[in-house]
Structure prediction request, 827 residues.
Amino acid sequence: MRETLASVNRFLDAPLEVAPRLLLVAALLCLVPTYLTPLYNMTMFAAQYQDGLRLDIYSYKLVGGHDNQDVKEINVLNHYIGMKDLVTEDFDEFKWLPFVIGILGLLFLRAAVLGKASHLVDVTVLYLYFGLFALWSFGYKMYQYGHNLDSTAAVRVDPFMPPMFGYKKLANFEVYSYPQLGSYGLALAALMLAAALFFAWRQWRRAPATT
Amino acid sequence: MKTRGTLLAAIAGILALGVLASRCAPSGPRGARRGAAVSDLAAAAMKVYVAPGDLDEYYMFASGGHSGQMYVYGLPSGRHISTIPVFTPYPATGYGFDDESKAMLGGLSWGDAHHPALSETSGDYDGRWLFINDMNARVARIDLRDFKTKQILGPIPNVSGNHASSFVTPNTEYAVMGSRFSIPIPKGTPAGVDKYATEYKGVVTGVRIDPKSGEMALGWQIVMPPFDYDLGDAGKAASDGWVFFSSYNTERATGKLEVTASQRDRDYIAAVDWRMAEQLAAKGEGQTIGGVKVIDPAKNPGLVYFMPCGKSPHGVDVSPDGKYIIGSGKLQGVTTAFNWEKVQTAMRNKDFAGDEDGIPVLKYESIKDAEVPVGLGPLHTQFGPDGHAYTSLFVDSAIAKWKLGTWEVVDKVPMSYSIGHLAAAHGDTVKPHGRWLVGLNKLSHGRHLSVGPSQPESSQLVDVSEEKMKLLLDFFTEPEPHYAQIIKADLLKPIEVYPKEENKHPHAVWDVKDAGVTRSGTKVLVKMVAVRSTLTPTDFEVREGDEVTIALTNIEQTTDELHGLGVLDHDINIVVDPGETKTVTFKAKKRGVYPYYCTNFCSALHQEMQGYLIVR
Prediction:
């Protein structure tokens, strides 16, 4: 037991080789798209909407298709079932997401420059926590919109959960929900971190014990 | 070296995974991805193709909504053949310009025409008249002998927003009216909306129709609770003698009705015993309001019953045998079939759930036979010859075909887009033909060459002669068709000229020698003859300030030889059909010389058909 702990400590103190450091920089680069491209897209089709009503969710804003007209259209439709309007101001996520992603990026860079395995472990754990929390937060938001329906609405529908991934039929709408480039970047960054950890661990194991 | 290889492999793997994962929303909905087979297109084309010179099999009379007109289409071609002006001036036929039609319009230059009703004998179309409602408490009658509006009755006292109209009874005894907007009656009584629940009243009315002439007159009027009476249908066969009105806002709410009038899970279909109303009216029953006798159903038990129907029902439609009343709650996913036998039993046994202003409310569970899961936003139902019913679904944008009795939905066909009414060949009679069904859609976006923001309404022809419905044709109907009637063409025998011997107009002249100007005081009568290719007299003089009446007779007896009279710088533009006389009266206000001419191209020397009005 003591030996294992000591071993872990030795690993945490070990300097990172080139590959993990490069992977950390690559992970940093993977975060860049979250500032430029959507994290998520929801597209809704109905007979009357052959073109689809599209909703792009960025880390900091909500953008509808057709020059943002789709957000208004979605809100007009949803008011019949008593759903709350989708408005940017209601998403607290938009306030902290870009900031937190930026912090994480800086921590990636810090780990790459200072170059100790412990830094890498720190950011990986933090990043994992961030990822799970963001996912939960998104899911919870969706749940809230589908469940907090005004009981005086003209059309009463059963509370529903919009799809998180893939296709779901909701009333007369076909709803498709898919992660976008931003989210894939986040996922890729996670894989980069995992790879960096893997290589760091392997390289440390293979390195002759100099101390 | 090995490390670098593994690293590259890992990165490549990650990228591949990313590409695989990067699924995104499809470009179109599922249905759009199924293309029609080529052979289907050919078959559909053959079904709707009416070769040059050939005639359509059916007439479709579609209301023109707030255009105030009726439009005539041929089916299956979907061709727009003619426009019948009713509530709105129509320069193309001079309607609303001559003295008679101007007087008929009564100073209103708009109407909102929703629900045409063909006259019926024994519950089937007889091809005599076409009735059409106007929201301004009016009903018009078009004579199908010459496709002309012959009478506009109203505005009728107390009725406000005549939407639940003009549905006729099986032998055209009555057309009906129902107020969509309750108001304090008589009209002219002010009361704030805070008094809505008690002081505002709905009104339903029977318009009596003379069986020989078609002349309309007020038959009976019944005061109702302040609900919004939306649509109607007369009972037939088993339910003959009754008329049904759907209603929403039984909440008696005001303000933002889209919410406030959508709170109750059930509103009502009112069942009115029109034979009893007729007898009560004959006895002079009722209180005089707004100059007419208004019957109170609370004081006359048995006259009106409410049938609960979910939720905010729009269409109410009686099955061909009269045994089922189909009520479609537009905010639901089901349409409700009421069993007339059960309804009558509940009436007899006083199986009531309560009352509304003294009108008994029947128990829903006692009278309904089925809630048919047709789909979202059911509005209206039409019938086929084989026990099938067709219900339009606004939200789903489709038509559901289902079976009376077994209540199973057997087929659906998508509509582009957002269907309102639908009309089947003789689809609301005791003998539906099946064969053709037309979806009258509210939205057409993208189904036509772009014409800018003001878009036409799309209608779609569906072949219902087989088990599966087949969409055949898109065509574009003048704004805004609400309901339509489809009648077999051979039931109509229109004339094509007005026979000379039938023209009893006092100012008609049939010989150019009799044309001319007569004066009495400041009144000038110009008897004018139109025949290829002269308007006689070719000039005439009047004095400034004269009241001039031009009586124009088209003495042609040849089909399609129409003549017009346009007087420049004046609001005068009339058209006379062969054998027709029309008058137009105006004040000669300003001195000068004003050319007049034939506006309706008639002959090789049409351009020469002109003259001068000289005002001294």
Observations:
- Residues 2-206 of chain A form one domain.
- The first helix of chain A runs from residue 2 to 13.
- Chain A has six helices and five strands.
